[in-house]
Amino acid sequence: MPEPIIQIEDVRKRFGRVEALRGVNLDVSEGEVVVIVGPSGSGKTTLLRCINRLEEYEEGTIIVDGMALDNTSNINAIRCEIGMVFQSFNLFAHLTALQNLTLAQCIVRKRSREDAEKVARALLEKVGIPEKANAHPAQLSGGQQQRVAIARALAMNPKIMLFDEPTSALDPEMIKEVLDVMATLAKEGMTMVVVSHEMGFARAAADRVIFMDEGLIVEQATPHDFFQNPREERTRLFLSKIIHL
Amino acid sequence: MLASTLLDFTMEEQKKNARSRELSFVVGGEVSIRQDPWWWLVVAVAAIIGLLVILWPVPFREIVVFARDGILVTMVVTVASYFLIVIVGLLGGLGRISKNKLVFGIASLYVEVVRGIPLLVQLIGWYFASPVIIQKLGLWLNLQPLIEYRANPIITAIMAITVCYGAYMSEIVRSGIQSVPKGQMEAARSLGMSYFQAMRHVVLPQAFRVILPPMGNEFISLLKDSSLVSVVAVADLTRRGREFMSAHFNPIETWLMVALLYLVMTIVAARVVSYIEKRSKYERY
Prior knowledge:
Strand content of chain B: under 5%
Number of helices of chain A: 9
Radius of gyration of chain A: 18 Å
Strand content of chain A: 15-25%
Mean pLDDT of chain A: 91
Largest sheet of chain A: 6 strands, mixed
Mean pLDDT of chain B: 86
Structural class of chain B: mainly alpha
Number of strands of chain A: 10
Largest interface: A-B, 34 and 29 residues
Shape of chain B: flat
Helix content of chain B: over 70%
Oligomer: heterodimer
Number of strands of chain B: 0
């Protein structure tokens, strides 16, 4: 069996007096789609942000694609391999959609402008908005912005994609267009770690669902087992609160 | 230099597909009276100067001719200082947001101390004190060129102004950088850019648009405050005016003309700032 592409070992992180992560262990294998759910303040976003070191952790080890994150010297090289999609999109506001996609390709991957634009246009096509190449972020709807943000991350040809509540800031009717793009990616075999409240997505696209609470992983299971017969009492309580039909 | 590369970077991008951006860029690329009626003020002041010079060559034409090298000195001191101020401000601003405590401490101390001392005092201090220090240093190191050092008024003045205004500019740059949402830096870093690449390509171009009005203000203040250099033997417009007045005893005409000359320079500068501002506008979230 090949080595997991992400190995998280006993990671701890505190914000002042609050312990955000209290010893998390998690392995993700190549091509796996992992969805992390949990109540707010459970540490899921913090964990995700530790995987590309946007957040420093005090203890533990994270190894991504064979490279230990604790070694600061090559953090930029590791980040190239990890695409990140944010809740608030964070598109570069002064650049067009196309330029958002080409900037890092040119200065980090050192691609020529022509090559970068070719990649960018193909990706905008893929996320379904090729006609918005020259639009600025402020001219796009939330769903379109998030799709550009996904394309921007993909333009670096990452091995892993991290999604931090990618649909939480969207109007309901725009959620689907973003989830569709994510589902396509999952089908293509991209390794994905997704923090989300979209249980429908978790059920349909995830290989594994992880439930976090109070800085710990409480339960992990296949979507079927997770939703049909959760083992832990805490998980059942959580599911009963969010699934209301 | 840094500011101009930022500007070049964004302008160049804008020109390339100007048509597709009509929505996002407020039309205002032309310098014309129709687009910016305040140019009429420039025309009016220039016309008054022209009329005075033509109708009463004595003394107005004489004043202008006498003071023209002073006008040039004022412009050189202002532009050269401003260029350096932007660089100092950029470094100071980055220092003021640095997580490195030493860098932050040095930048903050610089800003706090320099802001608290009047520009005139700093100018006189640099002019009279710095040569003595350099000469003493020369004696100590036994270096002949340092022992014989004499202060060059213009260079000393530019240095003093840069140190003083650099402190204010540092705070302007800091506020601009802090006005850019944190997520912009995070997104850039998550794509593998280094801190400085992210600053250069993502944060500063956005900060620059925010701080353009206060930066323009600084330029105009600087143009006027450059008259202070006349006390340290720099033959700028103000000093030449004073020399003319003492030779011809006509204070009213002299200072009217000097004031008009300053005014025409500052309002042209204001128009240029407003033009750049319009050019670089974009829709924000």
